[in-house]
Amino acid sequence: MDQTAEIAPAKINLALHVIGQRADGYHLIDSLVTFADRGDRVSARIADADAFMLSGPFSGGLETDGNNLTLKARDLLRATVIEAGGAAPPVALHLEKNLPVAAGIGGGSADAAATLRALMRLWNVESDAEALGALALRLGADVPMCLAGRPAVARGIGEKLTPAPSLPSLHLLLVNPLKPVSTPDIFRRLDRRDNPPMDALPGSFSLPDWSEFLAGQRNDLEAPARQCVPEIGIIQTLLRLTGAQLCRMSGSGATCFGLYESREAARAAERNLRTAQPGWFVEALTTVSGDET
Ligand SMILES: C[C@](O)(CO)[C@H](O)COP(=O)(O)OP(=O)(O)OC[C@H]1O[C@@H](n2ccc(N)nc2=O)[C@H](O)[C@@H]1O
Ligand SMILES: Nc1ncnc2c1ncn2[C@@H]1O[C@H](COP(=O)(O)OP(=O)(O)OP(=O)(O)O)[C@@H](O)[C@H]1O
What domains does the chain contain, in order, with CATH numbers? Predict the structure, then answer.
C-alpha cells in the first residue's frame, strides 16, 4: 500500500466534570465522550520527500509547520519507528480541515489520531494498545480518546478510557460562533476543581434513559467559557427554541451541541440556525453508537 486516508471525526464531550488537579497543573476529569460520523480528513501517500498540504473551510491561519498536530504526529511516530530499527519513508500528507479550530471538538487531536492511524498502515507499524495510547498522550490529552474513536468514559487527564457500549447513536446539532477558545485559559478560570464525578451510566440503550442521565450531568468548563464567549448563552437559547431536548457545551468550548429525537429534527434545526446565523458553524450529525464493532 502506498496511499491511504482517514476521517478525523469531531469529538463531543456529552458531559465533562472537573474533579481534581494533578501536581503538574493538569486537571482530572470525568467525561463521557462520543464521536461524529464526520470531521476532518487526513490522506497520506509515500513520496520522494515529506510534504504537507492544507485545504478545507477552516484551513486559513492554521500552522503548516511542525506545530501542526498532523506533523507532530508524523514526527513522533517516525522517531519511534526509527528508534525501534524500522523504516519510515517520506510521506505527502493532506489535511482537509472541515472542523473549526480551537472549538472544543478535538479538531487538532482528531487530526493527530487520524495521522497516527494512517501512517501506521502506510509504514506497516504494529503496536500494542498500551504503547500506542502512551504515544498518543504525548501529543495531547484528547489524542488517546480520538485514536480509539469510540464512545467512552475518559478519566485521569482524559487518557484513562472505559468503553461506553450502551451509548446509543445520537442526533446532534453542533453550533460554534467561530470564536476560538484557548483550552488552558478556560481551565485556569475555573472557580472549583473538586466537583463531583458523573453519575453511573445507564446500562440500557434507551434514548429516554440517556437523555435523563445527560440532563443530570454538567460541563464544568461552561461557566468559565461563557466569560470569554457570551454567545454560548445565545446559542443554547437558540438550540432550545429549535426543539433540542438538551443543550450543552463540548470540551473547553465554544461549540455547543443540541440533542434531538430524530435526524430530521436535527436537520430542520440546522436549516433554521444556518438561516438565522449565516456566520456560524452549524452542523447536524449522527454520532457513533457504543455497540458498533
Ligand atoms: C477539555 C478537553 O478537550 C476535554 O476532552 C481536554 O481536557 C483538553 O485536551 P487537549 O486539548 O488535548 O489538551 P492538551 O493539548 O493536552 O493540553 C492543553 C492545556 O490544557 C490544560 N489541560 C488539558 C487537559 C487536562 N485534563 N487538564 C488541563 O489542565 C493544560 O493547561 C494544558 O497545557
Ligand atoms: N491540525 C490542527 N487542527 C486544529 N488545531 C491545531 C492543529 N494543529 C495545531 N493546532 C493548534 O491547536 C490549538 C487547539 O486547536 P483544536 O482545534 O485542537 O482545539 P479544540 O477543538 O479546543 O481541542 P480540544 O477539544 O481537544 O480541547 C489551535 O489553537 C491550533 O493553533
Answer: 3-163 (3.30.230.10), 171-286 (3.30.70.890)
